[in-house]
TrEMBL record:
This is Uncharacterized protein. It comes from the Bacteria.
């Protein structure tokens, strides 16, 4: 994402929360490290 569009990105994230009201809480987190998108397999080869 281009740095000069960060405000536009933040506003887009706020829009659904405003529409859904107090029952909704959305948070923007980042930047996230690539390792946060990888899941370790469960012991025994099972899946979640």
């Amino acid at each position: 994402m281009e740095a000069d569009r960060s405000e536009e990105f933040t506003a887009a994230g706020r829009q659904p929360a405003e529409q859904w009201g107090e029952d909704c809480h959305l948070g923007l987190h980042g930047p996230l490290l690539p390792c946060t998108f990888v899941r370790d397999p469960l012991p025994g080869g099972g899946a979640e």
